[in-house]
Amino acid sequence: MSSYPVFDLSPDELLTTTRTVRKRLDLTRDVPLDLIKECLQIALQAPSGSNRQAWQWIVVTDPAVRAQVGTLYGEQVDGYLKSNASAAKLFADDPDRAPVQQRVGDSVAWLGKHMGDVPALVIPCIKAGKTLWAGNQAGLWGSLLPAAWSYALAARARGLGTAWTTLHLEREAEVAELLGIPAGYHQAALIPTAYFTGETFKPAPRQSIESVLHVDRW
């Protein structure tokens, strides 16, 4: 039984309205650590290969440390937005998708400037040795990413917004040193977490199932 209010969402509503939240993150309102722990407790029910449960979670709330992480993240965002991989530059010739991509780019830029101001930064990690092996890493990340997504779903149901970000991973070693992450543990994401502004979210436009589905053969 949650000690915090939980939205009355059907499973389909929860799955289709858990959106990436950037500009609607409320930077003025603290998030109780107990609420984040409640979401993480749900996340720990996710599947884990061989039941190893090799995950570890860092929740950064100290303003000074958040600011340092935010600076590293912001520098990576600046480089990303200047690159050809930038969301704002994708589908530039598509009149339907280009405006959406521009809004995504603006949203990414906003978070790049404000990551350090978000009340809580959650970093899921997994133990995998000092060097990641070549070959099949799906089992490794498949033992962490479902749990990280379950965290985002649990947060959404409790009025919190999150964003799945990975741009900081090019500076993973620096973040690890800053946060004291031991050698052999690898970060999977940086998930800013805050209450969201506004009422709710709606499903996003997506490709039709016919355009992505293959039955029996490609």
Question: Mind explaining what this structure looks like?
Answer:
By secondary structure, the protein is α+β, with helices and mostly antiparallel strands. The protein has one domain: NADH Oxidase, CATH 3.40.109.10. The chain is built from 7 helices and 5 strands. It has helices spanning 11-17, 33-43, 63-82, 98-114, 138-141, 145-157, 172-179, and strands at residues 55-60, 120-127, 160-162, 185-187, 191-195. Strands 1, 2, 3, 4 and 5 form a 5-stranded antiparallel sheet that branches. Helix 3 runs antiparallel to helix 7. The longest helix has 20 residues, at 63-82. The radius of gyration is 18 Å and the shape is globular.
C-alpha end-to-end distance: 45 Å
Largest sheet: 5 strands, antiparallel
The first-level CATH class name: Alpha Beta
How many strand elements? Answer: 5
CATH structural fold name: NADH Oxidase
Q: How large a portion of the residues is in β-strands, by DSSP E?
A: 5-15%
**Helicity, in percent?**
25-40%
**Average of the residue pLDDT scores:** 94
Structural shape = globular
The CATH superfamily name is: NADH Oxidase
CATH architecture: 3-Layer(aba) Sandwich
Global structural class: alpha+beta
**Please, how many helices?**
7
H/E element sequence: HHEHHEHHEHEE
Low-pLDDT stretches? none
Radius of gyration: 18 Å
Please indicate the count of domains. Answer: 1
